[in-house]
Design a protein that fits this description.
The chain has 319 residues and is mostly helical. 55% of the residues lie in helices and 3% in strands.
């Protein structure tokens, strides 16, 4: 189909010429645009109605192509490999993916510290070992009560710290630290944290839409926020998106998600790629690349200090 036959098609710079697609009249007053495809103009509603049967097929084709272009551009962004985790501010080794065990957020200074540096002995400027109940980065003593910890988090929220804002959203969501449970306030804080780059905030918003907590259940919006979380580096959400695509039968998209998650250090995605390979939905080369990506991740996060911490306690496991 020739898509350039309508008088109103743009002139190459995205701006529609002031020509009525029905009668050919020109002028500044030609501003009645097709509501559906936005690709042709008319001088009035009468011309639009008169031309409708001639324009219908082109209009539907414009809409179809626009949807395809939008989907293609979305996938380009969706399947980009996000930047790796930042380095630990103390040992300067890449932070591990495992948030609960492999790293810890410090409510005093807002830094994320790896398990090795959390567990390691701490010394003062003269080389003397100091009390381990101090932050390994800023040397602030650990809070002695939940109330004091909450006050530190509140101060970081006022300083636009994204992790603190995300945590505060969780406190409102669960009704902790004396706060009344407020899902709407939680969502407000999570949106703020997400805009500041916190990937877990987007995941929590997606979960809220999935479960209908503070909002109406909306699967489309849930997927939107899960995808934002994946695009900003949440490997667990990325893996779950892969699982969703696998259940829908799109093994190619599932594989793309798993490959990105593996490169980010998520071992469960490696297991899924192995299954796809065994079932003929991934190639040997795909599995080999996944293995190399995961091994490269392990090399990047490995340190003797983290090994010592992991050997000391399961709570410091980082791989």
């Amino acid at each position: 189909m020739n898509m350039n036959t309508s008088a109103g098609n743009d002139n190459g710079n995205g701006i529609l010429p002031d020509i009525c697609a029905n009668c050919g009249k020109e002028g500044d007053e030609i501003n009645n645009i097709c509501n559906k495809c936005k690709q042709v103009k008319y001088c009035n509603a009468a011309c639009k109605k008169k031309h409708r049967h001639k324009h219908k097929q082109d209009c539907e084709e414009h809409v179809r192509l626009a949807a395809e272009r939008a989907a293609a551009l979305h996938d380009i962004e969706l399947f980009k490999q996000p930047p790796p985790e930042e380095d630990c501010p103390i040992c300067f080794v890449r932070l591990p993916t495992l948030y609960v065990t492999g790293r810890r957020y410090q409510g005093c200074c807002g830094k994320e510290i790896c398990c090795g540096c959390v567990h390691a002995p701490r010394y003062d400027n003269q080389g003397n070992k100091v009390n381990n109940k101090k932050c390994p980065f800023c040397r602030t003593p650990d809070p002695t009560s939940e109330e004091k910890l909450f006050e530190k988090i509140r101060k970081l929220v006022d300083m636009d710290d994204p992790v603190a804002i995300y945590n505060m959203g969780g406190y409102y969501d669960e009704g902790r630290y004396g706060l009344h449970q407020n899902h709407n306030k939680a969502l407000e804080l999570w949106h703020r944290a997400g805009e500041l780059g916190n990937t877990n905030a987007y995941a929590s918003i997606g979960y809220a839409y999935k479960r209908g907590e503070g909002v109406d259940i909306d699967k489309k919006k849930a997927t939107h926020y899960y995808e934002l979380a994946a695009m900003t580096g949440n490997t667990i959400v990325r893996h779950n998106l892969g699982n969703s695509e696998r259940r829908l039968g799109d093994m190619n998209r599932a594989l793309k998600h798993y490959m990105i998650a593996v490169k980010g250090g998520y071992d469960k995605s490696l297991d899924e790629i192995k299954k796809l390979y065994s079932n003929g939905h991934a190639t040997k080369d795909d599995y080999t690349k996944a293995l190399r990506s995961y091994q490269a991740y392990l090399v990047e996060i490995k340190s003797s200090q983290r090994d010592e911490a992991a050997a000391f306690s399961e709570k410091y496991r980082y791989y």
